[in-house]
């Protein structure tokens, strides 16, 4: 089995993050936000093609939840997974190279934006079939349980997945077998262009999950500290051996569903109301208010992130293309 | 290898080395469970019930509920969980009651099991085995009787095998579990009670077998149609035609070398396939022969397939829908002229 060519890890966090964990959350969110905005430019410049789904507005979930996991835990994600991958430590250059279709991409150019994989970090991919990742998460947790590994599989999906049969089947099976799965629903209120109230008879998604006999509760998904705290609680419950938990992260995407979406179905005022809850602005303001952040340190943080992004763009651009002769590789496992 | 029958198996007293297809499958499961602690079995009614077709009878008692797991009626979840467990280092054997039910798990089989290795750039492998029953002949009508092996054989990333003999039923699970790729193993419902010899010869996952030699016409078949093809060959021999019977055994990859070598000797081809004719595996075999051995043929290839209807209930209608010995004999005679 091969691993992504670029195995560089995140730059070491500045020392002040060890003093205030909020700085790591803030920095993680800014990293994702600026990365996604850079992806828009790269998409417009036709450097990135295909479907691309951005998580601008939903960064608190990525940093709060994924950041709370241990390295041994597993992550199963969806097609809106740039933020999850970055928060998990997948190198930014490998993510970008993947979207550029390069051999140095984290899926060797075979996955693109929707299918980022990094098995060395137990990041089991962006799954682009809504609900399709849930059974896999149950199976990963089953394997860990059978092998006696005390780890958790975090499974991220959206509110649209809750309407799929695989949601019901997977929650039932995980609860029945008391498997260590953290089901995390990023409820951004829209299944592509269909609003929550047009897709669910019962819009209280945590209530639905609770009916399978697992702890389930809603979380302010626009607050990374609330997300991290809820995740820690859920992880402690799961690690105690009592079975899965479900967190409904109430969040919102500020941008359209994908780069193809003209966003005709949302009221501008609604989008503006949610933007008032911007997770980056909220945490930044909170930290400024209590003296945890000043203008200069904010500027330094943003500059460092931008520097990382530009270095990642350059590295991705320099990456080689997979030779066409290798088109049919990896259809079947290759001898290692 | 001596015949070992489960204490709980229904009264079967066969001589050593001889067992039923069902027992052969059970023995292969038992051997795998004994030999590799990563192996576990899951599916609907595989434990307390003993398996819908009694293949797993007695395994729960021997190996316990952690390794012989009854699942809810959730084909998508338990097949997907098999994929996840395979990714997580286990060697799951998932049983689906019938190929018709497998359609509820088609998303997991196609979009995950068959694609994850490629889509991850080779980082992932899915060493999963899925066993399922296929085929008609028991008056179970149109939602329990279809033969969709050909559909699955269309999909790159999967390996498809169809044991047609007791020896293959005994010998195919071990190489399937040793494969790093997802393997679908199709068991024809009409074969479970068949009896045969087993031996220690290892079974390869990708090689066809010549079940009967002959020089006048090649009958290519697989799975539940092997007995039909062999009976047709007997009938043809009485009429002075020596038919060679090739059992594909593996439907993906296809061992076309064995098929082509046979056709180059006999110069005539009849494909016998319980699937529907249009877009069938029979079509694939005929096309490959036409592409690669066209000038060796003395007659157009013939296909004997199921009638293009959902399989009906009434015995005479079901019989009429499936390839029969007489159909194969008639097709072979047409090629000989």
Automatic annotation (TrEMBL), chain A:
Coiled coil (residue ranges): none
UniProt GO MF annotations: magnesium ion binding; pyruvate dehydrogenase (acetyl-transferring) activity
Listed Low complexity bias regions: 1-10
Region ranges (Disordered): 1-21
CC cofactor: thiamine diphosphate
Sequence ranges assigned to domain Dehydrogenase E1 component in this UniProt record: 28-322
Keyword Oxidoreductase tagged: yes
Primary role: The pyruvate dehydrogenase complex catalyzes the overall conversion of pyruvate to acetyl-CoA and CO(2).
Protein name in UniProt: Pyruvate dehydrogenase E1 component subunit alpha
Automatic annotation (TrEMBL), chain B:
SUPFAM superfamilies, sorted: Thiamin diphosphate-binding fold (THDP-binding), TK C-terminal domain-like
Protein name from the UniProt record: Pyruvate dehydrogenase E1 component beta subunit
Highest taxon of source: Bacteria
An MF annotation (GO) of this entry: magnesium ion binding
Listed SMART domains: Transket_pyr
UniProtKB keywords: Oxidoreductase, Pyruvate, Thiamine pyrophosphate
Keyword Signal: no
InterPro entries with a match to the protein in the record: THDP-binding, Transketo_C/PFOR_II, Transketolase-like_Pyr-bd, Transketolase_C
Every Transketolase-like pyrimidine-binding domain range: 19-194
UniProt key word Oxidoreductase: yes
Cofactor(s) the protein requires to work: thiamine diphosphate
Record-linked Pfam families: Transket_pyr (PF02779), Transketolase_C (PF02780)
């Amino acid at each position: 089995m091969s691993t992504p060519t670029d195995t560089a890890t995140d730059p070491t966090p500045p020392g002040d993050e060890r003093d205030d964990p909020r700085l790591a959350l803030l920095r993680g969110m800014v990293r994702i936000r600026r990365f996604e905005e850079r992806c828009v430019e790269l998409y417009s410049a036709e450097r990135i093609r295909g479907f691309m789904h951005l998580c601008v507005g939903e960064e608190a979930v990525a940093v709060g939840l994924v950041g709370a996991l241990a390295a041994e835990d597993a992550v199963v994600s969806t097609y809106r997974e740039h933020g999850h991958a970055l928060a998990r430590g997948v190198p930014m250059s490998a993510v970008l190279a993947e979207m550029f279709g390069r051999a140095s991409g984290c899926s060797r150019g075979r996955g693109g934006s929707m299918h980022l994989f990094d098995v060395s970090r137990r990041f089991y991919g962006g799954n682009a079939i809504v609900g399709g990742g849930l059974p896999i998460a149950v199976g990963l947790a089953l394997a860990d349980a059978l092998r006696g590994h005390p780890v958790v599989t975090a499974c991220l999906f959206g509110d649209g997945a809750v309407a799929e049969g695989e949601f019901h089947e997977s929650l039932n099976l995980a609860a029945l077998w008391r498997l260590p799965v953290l089901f995390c629903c990023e409820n951004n209120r829209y299944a592509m262009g269909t609003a929550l109230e047009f897709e669910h008879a019962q819009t209280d998604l945590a209530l639905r999950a609770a009916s399978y006999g697992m702890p389930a509760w809603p979380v302010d998904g626009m607050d990374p500290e609330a997300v991290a705290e809820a995740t820690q609680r859920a992880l402690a419950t799961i690690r105690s051996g009592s079975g899965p938990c479900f967190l409904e992260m109430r969040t919102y995407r500020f941008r359209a569903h994908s780069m193809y979406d003209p966003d005709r179905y949302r009221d501008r005022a609604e989008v503006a109301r949610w933007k008032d809850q911007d997770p980056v602005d909220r945490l930044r303001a909170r930290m400024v208010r209590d003296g945890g952040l000043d203008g200069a340190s904010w500027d330094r943080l943003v500059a460092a992130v931008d520097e990382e992004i530009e270095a990642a763009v350059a590295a991705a651009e320099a990456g080689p293309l997979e030779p066409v002769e290798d088109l049919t590789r990896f259809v079947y496992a290759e001898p290692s | 290898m001596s015949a070992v029958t489960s204490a709980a198996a229904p009264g079967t007293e066969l001589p050593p080395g001889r067992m039923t297809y069902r027992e052969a499958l059970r023995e292969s499961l038992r051997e795998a469970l004994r030999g590799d602690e990563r192996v576990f079995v899951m599916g609907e009614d595989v434990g307390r019930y003993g398996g819908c077709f009694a293949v797993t009878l007695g395994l729960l008692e021997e190996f316990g509920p952690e390794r012989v797991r009854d699942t809810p009626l959730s084909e998508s979840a338990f097949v997907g969980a098999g994929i996840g467990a395979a990714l997580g280092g286990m060697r799951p054997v998932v049983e689906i009651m019938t190929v018709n039910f497998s359609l509820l798990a088609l998303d997991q089989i196609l979009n995950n099991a068959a694609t994850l290795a490629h889509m991850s750039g080779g980082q992932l492998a899915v060493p999963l085995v899925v066993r399922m029953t296929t085929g008609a002949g028991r008056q179970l009508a149109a939602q329990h009787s279809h033969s969709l092996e050909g559909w699955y054989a269309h999909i790159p990333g999967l390996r498809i095998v169809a044991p047609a003999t007791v020896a293959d039923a005994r010998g195919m699970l071990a190489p399937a579990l040793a494969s790093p790729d997802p393997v679908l193993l199709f068991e024809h419902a009409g074969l479970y009670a068949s009896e045969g010899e087993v031996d220690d010869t290892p079974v390869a996952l990708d090689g066809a077998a010549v079940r009967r030699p002959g020089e006048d016409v090649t009958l290519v078949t697989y799975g539940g149609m092997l007995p039909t093809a062999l009976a047709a060959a007997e009938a043809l021999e009485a009429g002075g035609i020596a038919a060679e019977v090739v059992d594909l055994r593996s439907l993906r990859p296809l061992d076309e070398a064995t098929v082509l070598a046979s056709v180059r000797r006999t110069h005539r081809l009849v494909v016998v396939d319980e699937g529907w004719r249009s877009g069938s595996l029979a079509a694939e075999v005929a096309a490959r022969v036409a592409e690669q051995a066209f000038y060796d043929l003395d007659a157009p290839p013939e296909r004997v397939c199921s009638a293009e209807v959902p399989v009906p209930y009434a015995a005479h209608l079901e019989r009429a829908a499936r390839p029969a010995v007489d159909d194969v004999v008639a097709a072979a005679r047409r090629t000989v002229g």
